[in-house]
């Protein structure tokens, strides 16, 4: 079939399912491992900082390479990069399952994340170029955003069941059959596509992104253990600020930058990026706090801890697809405002829990959080991608996905550091503040005036086929 020939509807839906399959395993690995942290810590003799790194090395590396993977896919072929990503991710998962110690596990998680970075933005780019009808594309993006919420929500339950039955290594073995199935289906059914004009590599921009995210996370995790004025924390933040300044100076001077800063001139895109950071920081902090609280303070097993999160997961399962439908009816503002309000409310409600807190109060907080997180995903994806040029779909999707991973990394880093300092209550207030930020930006960045800035931002980008 020719590259530009429209695909039959059944084939388009199959491609959507394949892309969602890849998203499922990448997202599950962000959250499923949370439930295994206490057992993993005991077996590998890891402290809180070590546990933070098993989560954060994955999200930091993932975030660092998402934009490179998106632009490379537009350049050399989306199916080609997607298949390479599946091979690396699946191989990395097997190595994680066989890791003999904490250092090896962290290293293999980094390798796994390099493969994962080739899946999410590339899959979103494949979807954007497969569904050419605007209404169909909106529904596909809604389904995609729903899978993000669903996979992140069921991760603790799946992880708890696997840890209870087979141990924490089973979480990584699960990726092997799913990854192989996705690879076979991709080879058979996903057509090759690429941008009309190849993009040049940007090694300096890539190095600056890695430096920014790595130094920021390192400073918070390692420096935070010694106090908020420790040299490691201040030094890490200083390096991060310098890398950010370097990006803002260097990238606009490149004809084809890694980070397309003109995208951020669109208020909805910028808002979606920051909302993604806040929402996923809230989720990562929520899961990290609850995993240690339920198992260490309430004495529950990994399976029982996972089942306790079922109210949150079930609510997310209901509200994730509902959010996609609401976008088609009323736009993204309503779901985002309600999502922010719900996340903030849950953070406040759970800020005073202890070992004797009633399950009724606990589950109420979980349900409210599930409503918020279920509603937030589809609007993020829809707002970030809608209106952007198809020729740069991989880059736009990569930047949007980066916001999610940055948020996950910062959520674990900040909340874990606060928890290590002995203040779980402060961790819940961090989550509440994240919800407040979602609410505020959801209200301010989704109106008609904000949407007009997207058209002006796109007008500054090179036209298809033009240098």
SSE topology:
Elements: H1 9-35, H2 37-44, H3 48-76, H4 78-97, H5 102-117, H6 120-130, H7 134-166, H8 170-173, H9 175-189, H10 203-224, H11 231-250, H12 267-297, H13 302-308, H14 310-330, H15 333-349, H16 359-385, H17 393-420, H18 424-444, H19 448-459
Characterize the structure shown.
The chain has 467 residues and is an all-alpha fold. The chain folds into 2 domains: 10-191 and 258-458, Growth Hormone, Chain: A (Up-down Bundle); 203-257. It contains 19 helices and no strands. Helix 1 runs antiparallel to helix 6 (120-130) and helix 4 packs antiparallel against helix 6 (120-130). The radius of gyration is 21 Å and the shape is globular. The chain starts with 8 loop residues before the first helix and ends in an 8-residue tail after the last helix. The mean pLDDT is 82.
From the 3D coordinates, which CATH architecture of the largest domain would you assign? Up-down Bundle
Number of helices: 19
Helical proportion, percent range: over 70%
Number of strands: 0
Portion of residues in beta strands equals under 5%
Distance between the termini: 29 Å
Domain module count: 2
Taking the sheet with the most strands, its summary is:
none
CATH topology of the largest domain: Growth Hormone, Chain: A
């Amino acid at each position: 079939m020719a590259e530009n020939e429209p695909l039959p509807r059944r084939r388009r839906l199959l491609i959507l399912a394949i892309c969602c399959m890849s998203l499922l395993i990448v997202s599950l690995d962000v959250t499923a491992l949370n439930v295994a942290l206490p057992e993993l810590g005991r077996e590998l003799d890891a402290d809180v900082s070590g546990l933070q790194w098993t989560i954060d090395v994955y999200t930091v590396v993932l975030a660092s390479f998402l934009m490179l993977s998106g632009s490379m896919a537009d350049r050399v072929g989306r199916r080609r990069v997607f298949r390479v990503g599946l091979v690396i991710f699946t191989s990395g998962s097997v190595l994680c399952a066989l890791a003999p110690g904490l250092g090896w596990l962290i290293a293999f998680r980094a390798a796994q994340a390099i493969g994962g970075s080739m899946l999410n933005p590339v899959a979103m780019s494949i979807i954007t170029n497969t569904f050419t009808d605007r209404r169909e594309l909106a529904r596909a993006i809604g389904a995609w955003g729903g899978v993000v919420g669903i996979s992140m929500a069921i991760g603790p339950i799946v992880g708890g069941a696997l840890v209870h039955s087979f141990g924490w290594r089973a979480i990584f073995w699960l990726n092997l059959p799913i990854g192989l199935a996705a690879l076979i289906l991709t080879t058979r059914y996903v057509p090759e596509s690429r941008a009309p004009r190849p993009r040049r590599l940007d090694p300096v921009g890539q190095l600056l992104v890695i430096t920014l995210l790595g130094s920021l996370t390192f400073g918070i995790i390692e420096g935070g253990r010694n106090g908020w004025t420790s040299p490691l924390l201040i030094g890490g933040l200083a390096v991060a600020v310098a890398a950010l300044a370097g990006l803002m100076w260097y990238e606009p001077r490149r004809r084809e930058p890694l980070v397309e800063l003109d995208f951020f001139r669109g208020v909805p895109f910028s808002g979606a990026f920051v909302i993604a950071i806040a929402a996923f920081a809230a989720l990562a902090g929520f899961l990290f706090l609850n995993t240690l609280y339920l198992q260490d303070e309430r004495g529950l097993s990994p399976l029982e801890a996972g089942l306790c999160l079922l109210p949150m997961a079930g609510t997310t399962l209901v509200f994730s697809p509902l959010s996609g439908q609401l976008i088609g009816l009323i736009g993204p503002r309503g779901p985002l405002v309600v999502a922010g309000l719900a996340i903030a409310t849950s953070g406040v409600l759970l800020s005073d829990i202890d070992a004797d807190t009633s399950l009724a109060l606990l589950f109420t907080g979980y349900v409210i959080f599930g409503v918020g997180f279920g509603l937030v995903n589809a609007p993020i994806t829809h707002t970030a991608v809608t209106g952007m040029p198809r020729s740069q779909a991989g880059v736009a999707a990569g930047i949007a996905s980066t916001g999610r991973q940055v948020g996950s990394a910062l959520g674990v880093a900040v909340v874990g550091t606060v928890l290590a300092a002995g203040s779980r209550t402060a961790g819940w207030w961090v989550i509440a503040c994240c919800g407040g930020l979602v609410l505020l930006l959801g209200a301010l960045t989704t109106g008609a005036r904000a949407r007009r800035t997207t058209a002006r931002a796109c007008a500054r980008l090179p036209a298809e086929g033009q240098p």
